[in-house]
Amino acid sequence: MWEKFGEFDSAEEINLAAAAQLAEGDKEAILLIAEENGIDEEDAQDYIDGMAPALCTPMMAAMGKLKVEETELQPYEIMQDWLTYIQMRCTEEPDMAAAVRKKGKSLQGCIAKILVWSMKNAKPVAPDIIKAAGAHPRTTLGIPGMARVKQLITEYYLEG
Asked: Least C-beta-crowded within 10 Å: which of 89, 135, 153, 158?
């Protein structure tokens, strides 16, 4: 992840790097910046061809980062839902999109925050449910609901 150009802190940083490469005529470097940051090749080509004033918007930069992190992390089931909630929060609030792009913030870190909450808030499962499931008698469950997860996501990206 981000082997050639490193992790960018914002859409503005991505656009400055792309503009510098465009000024040098290095179209391949722009395509690589786009690829490393999850930005569609077609959007990069539009920028190269002068059809777009910048390589990306803050929303594109955030969604691209999440796309790259998703490819690396391979979330599944409930974690995939959590990723969807992050993406939804980005579309609801421009500050969230900017925060997702920040260095030091990551899908992995956000999922870890949710898992920590889950472990700290796990409660014993009712004996009848344990019996019906054939589960261990001391089984606990701490999966947060959608509202709680959205709160944790907001805390991680915007307040943490």
From this structure: 135
Residue 4 has pLDDT above 90, yes or no: no
- Decide if pLDDT at 39 tops 90: yes
DSSP 9-53: SSHHHHHHHHHHHHHTT-HHHHHHHHHHTT--HHHHHHHHTTSSS
Tokens of 130: 């344990």
pLDDT, averaged across the chain: 95
pLDDT of 160 reads 63
Give the predicted TM-score (pTM) of the model.
0.91
Residue 88 banded pLDDT, cuts 50, 70, 90: very high
* Residues 6 or more apart in contact with residue 136 via CB below 8 angstroms: 130
Cα(121)–Cα(151) distance, integer angstroms = 15
- For residue 140, the tally of other CB atoms under 10 A from its CB is 12
Sequence-distant (≥ 6) Cβ neighbours of residue 43 within 8 angstroms: 34, 52, 55, 56, 60
Question: Whole-angstrom Cα distance, residue 107 to residue 99?
Answer: 12
- Among the listed residues 49, 47, 50, 61, the one whose alpha carbon sits nearest the alpha carbon of residue 12: 61
Helix (H) or strand (E) holding 140: strand 140-141
